[in-house]
TrEMBL record:
Subunit comment: Homodimer.
Signal sequence segment: none
Pathway, per record: Cofactor biosynthesis; (R)-pantothenate biosynthesis; (R)-pantothenate from (R)-pantoate and beta-alanine: step 1/1
Source organism per UniProt: Desulfocapsa sulfexigens (strain DSM 10523 / SB164P1)
Subcellular location: Cytoplasm
Taxonomy of the source species: Bacteria, Pseudomonadati, Thermodesulfobacteriota, Desulfobulbia, Desulfobulbales
Catalytic activity, reaction form: (R)-pantoate + beta-alanine + ATP = (R)-pantothenate + AMP + diphosphate + H(+)
GO CC terms in record: cytosol
Protein name: Pantothenate synthetase
Function: Catalyzes the condensation of pantoate with beta-alanine in an ATP-dependent reaction via a pantoyl-adenylate intermediate.
Residue numbers binding ATP: 30-37, 147-150, 176, 184-187
Amino acid sequence: MKVVTSPEEIQILAQQYRSQGLLIGLVPTMGWFHEGHLSLMRRARQSVDRVIVSLFINPMQFGPGEDLDNYPYDLKRDCRLAEEVGVDIIFAPDKGSMYPEGFATTVSVSGLTSSLCGASRPGHFDGVTTVVAKLFNLTLPHLAVFGEKDFQQLAVIRRMVADLDFPIDIIGHPIVREKNGLAMSSRNTYLQKDEIPAALSLSLSITAVKNAIKNNSGQTITPADLKDIACQIVTEHPECEIDYIEIVDKTTLQVCTHLSEQSLLVMAVKINKRIRLIDNSLLMES
Ligand SMILES: Nc1ncnc2c1ncn2[C@@H]1O[C@H](COP(=O)(O)OP(=O)(O)OP(=O)(O)O)[C@@H](O)[C@H]1O
Ligand SMILES: CC(C)(CO)[C@@H](O)C(=O)[O-]
Ligand code: BAL
């Protein structure tokens, strides 16, 4: 496995792969790999000849007071894990090479970015779409794999790819969870042992909502009732502050007025004002 830090070099390599007729897959990440990241890499590995994983803690998507300076980072550890799943290249540029002096362009998707994570993290999705557009242009992938854990990010990227005519197949990959149900996340490393029950309330609330739907089959249960169930479970933990809990359409991200196969329960919860976790699940999978 090769580690490339220069944007110029990765683009030349990608051009060479393309001219040899090789299929390229990109997995964009911010590092500190866990099984969720590794599953995206394995997914890319199945479909392409060359897997490129980008590892870049993108300052443009962090707001003031967020955890940019504490974000976990260990390139050596991550390289070992990526190599084990057959990644060909880790692209790990530095901040200065991605945003050199004079950098003045923002790629911005409107509409989809105004609610949910976009409402509590102003500018976050502009940072995501700008860096992902750059990564697409640098690595020239045929496909890119993103996790469904970041459901809004996935919807926003699909919109950007459609709107800007990127010839890239965007693949959404299911959420990988710990045995106890907690959605894997690099930010889980911030959790102290006594904060785990609060963190688990996200996935437990999803299970409770799904059970309520099952137990009410035949009767009407509204998205508002289900939202209440989820909120109650999370707020049993004084460490938890709900950023949002909603039931939305999985494509438009508009709040649902009735349940359908498109209905996605989505949530962001802050634990002890320090650790912002997200989770989601479709409610009526066929
Ligand atoms: N548990 C998971 N299952 C599937 N995909 C995941 C999971 N966690 C992260 N991903 C995906 O990995 C990609 C890189 O995400 P990132 O490096 O930000 O990891 P993260 O664990 O989500 O970090 P954070 O805790 O900061 O949100 C994204 O497409 C994200 O959706
Ligand atoms: C897509 C991404 C790598 C862009 O920095 C980041 O938002 C992430 O890790 O999900
Ligand atoms: N996985 C999304 C990266 C972020 O929260 O900034």
